[in-house]
Write a structure and sequence with these properties.
Layout lengths: L3 H11 L6 H7 L3 H6 L9 H22 L5 H12 L1 H10 L10 H5 L6 H19 L1 H11 L1 H5 L9 H9 L7 E9 L4 E8 L2 E8 L2 H16 L1
Antiparallel strand pairs: 1-2, 2-3
Helix pairs in contact: 2-8, 4-5, 4-8, 6-8, 8-9, 11-12
Protein name: Ribonuclease 3
InterPro entries: dsRBD_dom (IPR014720), RNase_III (IPR011907), RNase_III_dom (IPR000999), RNase_III_sf (IPR036389)
Organism: Lactobacillus xylocopicola
């Protein structure tokens, strides 16, 4: 269960006090825990994650539009993609102490799910979905202004970071090559895509993301790391 210490931290550090504590608990509850503890009456975070994904994309898009007017549409899209990818959201969740608050079933706990980046991404999105339902978009923007927006302003998310383009340029230095991204798996709840990257029909890497584009970027990033 979400600790009193964490709730106090939300209040003192971020000025967040949930009117409906059940939403906060739900945001940190994995389906494995909800299934093992039906008596607790807590739903898992999946619907909140769905909502939080959209809330974060809108809030971050609006911030980039207002504060990076010198960037064109393509550059804004790339910067937003870098911010909302699995790596970025998982890093935010880790930094703000979210992993320790997640309610996990015994099997998932033993499997090391608490450190799984895709799970941390889900929880970060779910938390912001819960915050939106409890207090509205202004509260989400306030939280982001204390956590995510300063990192954007500091240049952590370079608009030029497009792993697919970088990979294509690297591979095609000596001429055309066949680069193919294939969806291996698509999960509906929560939304999760697994994409395989093949170069000249040879499998090079895989990537996961909450949509196809994000998964492709992760696969390209993994390929670049492997090649370099």
């Amino acid at each position: 269960m979400v600790s009193t210490k964490f709730i106090d931290q939300l209040s003192t550090k971020y000025k967040i006090n949930f009117d409906n504590p059940k939403l906060l608990e739900e945001a940190f509850t994995h389906s494995s825990y909800a299934n093992e503890h039906p008596e607790a009456g807590i739903r898992d975070y999946e619907k909140l994650e769905f909502l939080g994904d959209a809330v974060l994309e809108l809030a971050i898009s609006a911030y980039l539009y207002r504060n990076f007017s010198e960037l064109n549409e393509g550059e804004l899209t790339r910067m937003r993609s870098n911010i909302v990818d699995t790596e970025g959201f998982a890093e935010f969740a880790q930094k703000f102490g979210f992993p320790e608050q997640i309610n996990l079933g015994h099997g998932e706990e033993k499997a090391g799910a608490r450190a799984r980046k895709t799970l941390l991404e889900d929880v970060f999105e779910a938390f912001n979905g819960a915050l939106f339902l409890d207090q509205g978009m202004d509260a989400v923007k306030h939280f982001l202004s204390l956590t995510v927006f300063p990192l954007i302003d500091a240049g952590k998310f370079d608009a030029s970071r497009d792993y697919k383009t970088d990979l294509q340029e690297l591979l095609q230095q000596d001429g055309p090559v066949k680069i193919e991204y294939t969806v291996l798996q698509e999960e509906q709840t929560p939304s999760r895509f697994t994409v395989q990257l093949a170069v000249n029909d040879q499998v090079l890497s895989q990537g996961q993301g909450h949509n196809k584009k994000a998964a492709e970027q992760e696969a390209a990033k993994a390929a670049l790391t492997k090649l370099n």
